[in-house]
């Protein structure tokens, strides 16, 4: 069982058969063709040689086949991680330098170690700390950054930088150097890609293809763009006209690489590796869950961490770069009918064959075409809907999203994601730190208690019934004290306070301390403190302290029971 | 009104009279005598010249008189901030150097700016993010660190460092150099202080003094220790025997100092200043609130930030060091009967007079005595009770406390407080990220619903009633989805799911997205989603989105209403 948990391949391999292999083979071949332009493009986006993208699409896929739980996830270099990799490495070394390559391997290694450790310690829940608006804002802003960074490639000018503040001036000052042939190639591929994406499926459908196949072919636009433009570039020898082309890609299988053990380099890359791991995991696991749900399968987030971690470790030792489950390659894998992770292994073999034999064919591929491929695929991540939803629904969610977007654009990906996460946690704590509370009274003719400000209710002058609508914990412990002290300061005739805990799901040690303090202070003021409707788990916990012994009043099962007990008796004055 | 809010002196000065002045004068004079040894001691603890402690006890007190809201808080250098100041400055410069002095001023300035800004932006609630166990653990560990750092002074050897890892070896290697006369003076004062603190009040009471006065005199032990040992030191000329003494303290009023504007220095000190500000604020405001409550007064945490900020700004411009409300000096001020912040101004004048005229009298005061003063006052902060309470009550609170203590001792004050805060927030989010939820059923003969696993209840096979005991927000949005998908996967006969929201105090945008997704997925599975017992504020918020329009089912006011509506009718099959 333990073996099956950590090696999910054991759950499906014994049942593997020819039918499944047939489906996986088809999907694997389609993915192979698709990922070649993407892999080259993302390596260049990260400031690495194009071949690194191919290496990262071979052995990491085999590792995921062994350790991953999603049946359809396709692992490899992805745009966001490429952007984050470039941002993490550029302060350390110049793109293209030996140190830069080394640092990319270290980043993949650290990311792999972090992911595997998080998986083994079952820390997958950490991904939940990224709220939807923050993820959405981060992805949208990253997409804009990536597009801006590709504008240089599309225009044939050199634009560098990892924030809009760096990119925009760099683009503007080089507008006079636009290379028209490059622009023509870039704009042409962009148009081809947009047209195929938008109208390809419909047109092919009209031509008599079945809808699934038409959809799949429409998605392979990048392959057509690459083939056509490479042929044009070769035929007209565009390189001599000054069009930047991919150039020599070393032929052969991935090399065995050993990431440098350099303490100061590791130290510098630790935080970027952590951020990269979490972002990659979130991107991968949300997609994996969505697709698994469509087929009523399940994935295990903690084992996914192990699978992605193993992929990154393997990438570090085979000349690669940080990888995760890629959006577009996974969708294609799914649509092409992949049934098991074996499809990934087949794609890995395909990429290996191409790397081994066919890289010279890519020599004339213009970089501008790769820029167009990235741009068209990344712009789908810009999510205006979430921005609108957050604005209409919750200003604090909107604030977290807006800060994430602005900081990502202006300060870079790391600042953006850190600020977004910190802000959403801080805003949540702030909201829960001033819980809604209501003094309630009895609805006539019922056993229900409602707020005295919203309803016509019966009250008792010497008893206050206070309902707290939040778990009691450190962030609101002091607020609770304030609320109660204000209550007794304003109603000197009070003899009893009943704290209604129906919405209290947790009382932590800070809040317990506050309850002790409240109990003591109320006692000084000759007011008895009672609790009502304390939930089972909360009550169990309170019994671990001596609070219930020191409590001046009682714990009532229901508010009505407290009412019956504390109301003046007919025979009393 | 606005002027009164930001200048609280306007609320009490118009009503000031001779009776109040009499009380304040007495308290001010007693505090003056008390703070002299403390101020010297804390400056030396921070690695600064002794006179800096005196300067920091003059003008900052006047600033607090203008801007502070507590009637009895006494501002000045305190042990914890002195420790944090030393830890922040020692990586930057050698203690005693000109740069070190400059950096202390910059630290006070930054701290002042941060506190004032937090006050103006009403960010006082940030202090709530420090949970009681973390504060308590931090104070205990700091007290141990301070005691360890004073052992060197008490033994007459030089021990340096800001963590136990640095201090302990440094002490052990110099054990053979113990200076016996210093040890005798140190141990003697330690005993005097402990005896006066423990038995002074009782003994003086027996001698016929009234209890209040006896208590006050017992607290002035440090003054006696200083006077007696200074006389001995002077009489026997201990300095020539090798006992470290305070030495020359420049006579005169505080100088006007201008903190250096050095961008890199400011940058290095920004985070330490932030931590120091928050810790100082928490220490000061908790004490201020406790004492205000004793006299049924109130303080305003946000205005306290302004008051403490102003004090630190003034300290930066008058040769001082970071200050905040001090525990022992405030208690003495309170016990001596201070009625208004004017008592602080009187103490400031007293300290100014002493600095102006009487510093030569302090020449022979042995440093060991100051070490004894610090040790006795700081060890009261070690709080074993909270450690025990946290252990018994909540393992996650205990974990946060233990990590804070260990990291403070071994890695230093900054690492300790940052780790403690992060861990308590992370643990809280973790706990709320896997909310308790229960499938419930109807208790026979009632309208109450209880968990099917804990009670004998009626259920409907085609309807699941699920109660979620937590607010729905980003950290548990995905968990909610998992819970619901598992529920429908395990019960294929389900037609309706009723989500009971009685304990849901908040639904944020992430959770709303999850509700959309759940609604859509349940629809695909031909299951209708209903809500029940949605609270008013949550409902108001939901109406800001179109979720209620897309919801496949209804929103029921009570779970029982849903039961009545969804149970099979007698006339149905």
UniProtKB/TrEMBL annotation, chains A, B:
Localization per record: Membrane
SUPFAM superfamilies named among the record's database cross-references: SpoIIaa-like
UniProt membrane topology term: Multi-pass membrane protein
Gene Ontology CC entries for this record: membrane
Stored Pfam families: STAS, Sulfate_transp
InterPro entries: SLC26A/SulP_dom, SLC26A/SulP_fam, STAS_dom, STAS_dom_sf
Domain STAS: 453-566
Transmembrane segments: 20-36, 42-67, 74-93, 99-121, 133-158, 178-195, 216-236, 265-285, 305-324, 365-386, 398-430
Gene3D superfamilies reported for this sequence: STAS domain
Keyword annotations from UniProtKB, A to Z: Membrane, Transmembrane, Transmembrane helix
Source organism, top-level taxon: Bacteria
PROSITE patterns to which the protein is assigned, alphabetical: STAS
Biological process per Gene Ontology, one example term: transmembrane transport
The name this protein goes by in its record: Sulfate permease
Organism the protein comes from: Pistricoccus aurantiacus
Organism phylogeny: Bacteria, Pseudomonadati, Pseudomonadota, Gammaproteobacteria, Oceanospirillales
């Amino acid at each position: 069982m333990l073996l099956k948990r950590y090696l999910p391949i054991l759950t499906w391999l014994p049942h593997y058969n020819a039918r499944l292999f047939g489906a996986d083979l088809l999907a694997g071949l389609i993915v192979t063709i698709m990922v070649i332009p993407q892999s080259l493009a993302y390596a260049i986006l990260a400031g690495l040689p194009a071949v690194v993208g191919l290496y990262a699409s071979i052995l990491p896929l085999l590792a995921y086949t062994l350790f991953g739980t999603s049946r359809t996830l396709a692992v490899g270099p992805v745009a966001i991680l490429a952007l984050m990799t470039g941002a993490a490495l550029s302060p350390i070394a110049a793109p293209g330098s030996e140190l830069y390559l080394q640092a990319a391997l270290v980043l993949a290694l650290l990311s792999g170690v972090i992911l595997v450790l998080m998986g083994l310690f079952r820390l997958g829940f950490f991904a939940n700390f990224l709220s939807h608006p923050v993820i959405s804002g981060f992805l949208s802003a990253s997409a804009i950054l990536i597009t801006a960074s590709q504008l240089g490639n599309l225009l044939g000018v050199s634009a560098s930088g990892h924030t809009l503040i760096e990119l925009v001036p760099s683009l503007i000052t080089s507008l006079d150097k636009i290379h028209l042939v490059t622009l023509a190639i870039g704009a042409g591929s962009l148009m081809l890609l947009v047209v195929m994406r938008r109208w390809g499926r419909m047109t092919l459908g009209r031509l008599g293809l079945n809808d699934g196949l038409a959809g799949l072919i429409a998605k392979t636009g990048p392959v057509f763009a690459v083939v056509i433009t490479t042929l044009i570039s070769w035929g007209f020898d565009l390189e001599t006209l000054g069009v930047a082309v991919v150039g020599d890609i070393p032929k052969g299988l991935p090399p065995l690489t050993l990431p440098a053990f350099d303490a100061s380099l590791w130290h510098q890359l630790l935080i970027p590796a952590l951020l990269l791991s979490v972002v990659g995991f979130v991107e991968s696991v949300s997609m994996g869950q969505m697709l698994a749900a469509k087929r009523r399968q399940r994935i295990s987030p903690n084992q996914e961490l192990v699978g992605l971690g193993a992929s990154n470790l393997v990438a570090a030792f085979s000349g690669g770069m940080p990888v995760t489950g890629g959006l577009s390659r996974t969708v294609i894998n799914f649509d092409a009918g992949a049934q098991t992770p074996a499809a990934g292994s087949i794609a890995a073999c395909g990429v290996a064959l191409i790397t081994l034999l066919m890289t010279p064919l890519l020599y004339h591929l213009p970089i501008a075409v790769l820029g167009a491929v990235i741009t068209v695929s990344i712009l789908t991540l810009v999510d205006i809907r979430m921005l609108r939803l957050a604005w209409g629904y919750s200003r604090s969610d909107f604030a977290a999203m807006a800060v994430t977007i602005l900081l990502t654009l202006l300060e870079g990906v790391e600042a953006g994601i850190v600020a977004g996460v910190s802000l959403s946690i801080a805003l949540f704590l702030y909201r829960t730190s001033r819980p809604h509370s209501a003094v309630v009274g009895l609805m006539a003719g019922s056993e229900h208690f409602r707020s005295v400000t919203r309803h016509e209710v019966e009250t008792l002058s010497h008893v206050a019934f206070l309902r707290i609508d939040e778990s009691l914990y450190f962030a609101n412990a002091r607020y609770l004290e304030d609320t109660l002290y204000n209550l007794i300061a304003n109603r000197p005739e009070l003899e009893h306070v009943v704290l209604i805990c129906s919405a209290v799901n947790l009382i932590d040690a800070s809040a317990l301390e506050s309850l002790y303090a409240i109990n003591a202070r109320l006692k000084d003021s000759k007011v008895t403190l009672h609790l009502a409707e304390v939930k089972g788990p909360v009550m169990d916990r309170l019994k671990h302290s001596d609070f219930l012994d020191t409590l001046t009043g009682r714990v009532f099962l229901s508010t009505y029971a407290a009412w019956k007990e504390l109301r003046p008796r007919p025979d009393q004055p």
